Amino acid sequence: MDEKLTQFRKLIKEQSWSILQEKLLSLDNPSIVFLIEHSREFDSAVLFRFLPREKAKDVFQELSPIKQGEIISDLANNAKKVADLMNDMDPDDRTAFFEELPGQVAQRFMQMLSPENRSIAIQLLGYPEDSIGRLMTPKYVAVKSFFTVEETLQHVRKFGRDAETLDVIYVVDYEWKLIDDILIRDVLISGSDVRIENLIGEKCLSLSAYDDQEKAIRIFKDYNRTALPVIDTGGTLLGIVTIDDIFDVAEEEETEDFHKFGAVEDAKINPLHASVSFLYKKRIVWLMALVFVNIFSGAAISRFEHLIESVVALVFFLPLLIDSAGNAGSQSATLIIRALAVGDVQRRDWVRLLGKEFVVALVLGVSMAAGVSLVASWRSPDIVPVVALTMVLAVVVGSMVGMLLPFVFTRFKLDPATASAPLITSIADISGVLIYFSIAKWYLGL
User: Are the C-beta atoms of residues 387 and 362 closer than 8 Å to each other?
Assistant: First the structure.
């Protein structure tokens, strides 16, 4: 793909427009998205302008918000093209785009929409942020329960062209309340005179427009669905959510948790486009806070200056021991945060997990103590018991901290991913120093 980037960059530089268009249109949409995403702003705009309207719509919806903004800025003087682009977008993708814009800019683009699309956009943007209502699309096919299979297929042929998916057909009553959803496969293999009411199951799985998006992720995963209907409090069918939108949300959630776990404040950082000052501001707060936390490590070490002077070999094993505790804690926290995020573990499960984690940490600590004892027996045989015992206790303490912090954050209604690796490591450092030198002082009698 890097070769293609170089090739298109050269074609733009040489202004070989006919060759560029021919080669560009021979690519599939994912390849075009990659090219535009990884090209410079001017090159991205040139590439996008050569796309026909339908392809431009599909490609634009897959671009990142930053790249979408660059494209719109380039089209600023072409109001018709911007209006066509806004109106052609799928409602859920258009909502996601508007969410990334400043309020005044979003309002300006809203005025470019057709009355129908403007009404849909206002409705979707009226739901709470991170709710299912922001993700749903009104592009679906619904039929009445008294329809026959033949009537249903005629209805699909007439209205299905613009539907987000035709895998599922939705059954509603006269007041548009959801009755059930049925697979198109079941319709196709049934006789033409069979009524839809005879294909209806006992239970219909649906989402509320006000449900959190994370709930949808769990339901899609648990029930292996490609689309789910969205209803209001009265059971009226409002729209549907499809698996591709859920994938996007799940990816954003994982990225957010990953950044928070690494103590990066803003989960939507794109380091390729962000300025140095922006990246600095987003990282300095946590790092400065942890500087002061680590002062306690220094204070702990200073309490044992006499011990260190007497047995200098203790210093050699200090980084190894406290790093092992921090690594064990980070491992434990990663497992718990993921389990909490996907719903495998609930807050009430912490007591059961505490005992299990203690046993696992103890076995890990003993295994690592055996390894560090071999090193210590070669370098400083006289402190082998100190190093071995410290390794066991430090790994156990680090693992306990890593497991418990996410539950503590959840208890106070904070994101468990905020129990980040640097914080766990800092706590493990302090406890590791105290454990190590306290055991050494006791064992050596100094």
Answer: no
Chain region(s) in the chain for CATH 3.10.580.10: 142-243
Position 274: which residue type? Answer: A
d(CA 191, CA 184): 13
Report the half-sphere exposure of 441 (CA within 13 A, side-chain side): 14
**pLDDT single digits (tens) 212-235:** 888 888 888 888 888 899 988 888
Secondary structure letter of residue 146 according to DSSP: T
Total-model pTM: 0.47
Q: Which class in CATH covers the domain with range 142-243?
A: alpha beta
What are the tens digits of pLDDT across the range 271-284?
A: 555 667 766 776 66
Q: Is 102 exposed, middle or buried (0-12, 13-18, 19+ CB in 10 A)?
A: exposed
What's 2-133's CATH class? mainly alpha
CATH 1.25.60.10 residue spans of the chain: 2-133
pLDDT digits (tens, 9 = 90+) for 133-171: 888 888 889 999 899 999 999 999 988 887 888 889 999
Residues 345 and 336: beta-carbon distance below 8 Å? yes
| Helix, strand and coil percent figures for the chain, each rounded to 5 | 70, 10, 25
**What pLDDT, on a 0 to 100 scale, did the predictor assign at position 152?**
93
CA angle 349, 352, 358 (to 5 degrees): 125
Question: Other C-beta atoms within 10 Å of 140: how many?
Answer: 25
Per-residue pLDDT reduced to its tens digit, 405-434: 888 877 776 666 655 666 777 788 888 888
CATH of span 276-444: 1.10.357.20
